[in-house]
Amino acid sequence: MTAGAQTRGALGVIISGRCRDLAEHRAANFPVFSRGHSTLGQSPFTRPSSVNVPLTIEAVDMGEHASGFPPLTVHPGDIMVADEDGVVCVPTEDVQKVLELAAHGREVDARCWTDIRAGEGVQAAFKKHRG
To answer: Domain residues for 49?
Structure first.
């Protein structure tokens, strides 16, 4: 998967399912984000069916700990941001707003950290700067 995706210009892969061969992806410095890992390969039960089309992702059934998230449709051109904590989809029309909110959030977090390092309690610092 990694070599094929890199050949097509992909910088990483986000899978609404499970993946395998993590060592291969890591060795190629190719980020892969998925719902989990498996020893099973894709054949014969999964195949790419479409490329560059809207994709709707349903929330994971978590039993009594339901996520409460509605289905999400990712459109071609949307910005995907992913790290070890999760994946976020930013619609193209919201990119500027999200960048502004993120910059403000970083400033607020920096003020919180300054106060916490100076000995103020976490709750007090958050209340003071986050409201």
So the answer is: 1-90
Neighbour tally for 99: CB within 10 Å: 12
20 is in an annotated binding site: yes
Query: For the purposes of burial, counting CB atoms within 10 Å of the CB of 55, is it exposed (0-12), middle (13-18) or buried (19 or more)?
Result: middle
Question: E-strand spans in the chain?
Answer: 13-14, 18-19, 32-33, 36-37, 55-57, 72-74, 79-83, 86-90
Question: Do residues 102 and 81 share a domain?
Answer: no
- pTM of the predicted structure, to 2 decimals: 0.69
Is 94 annotated among the ligand-binding residues? no
The bridge status of strand 36-37 relative to strand 18-19 is: parallel
Residues of the chain above pLDDT 70, percent: 89
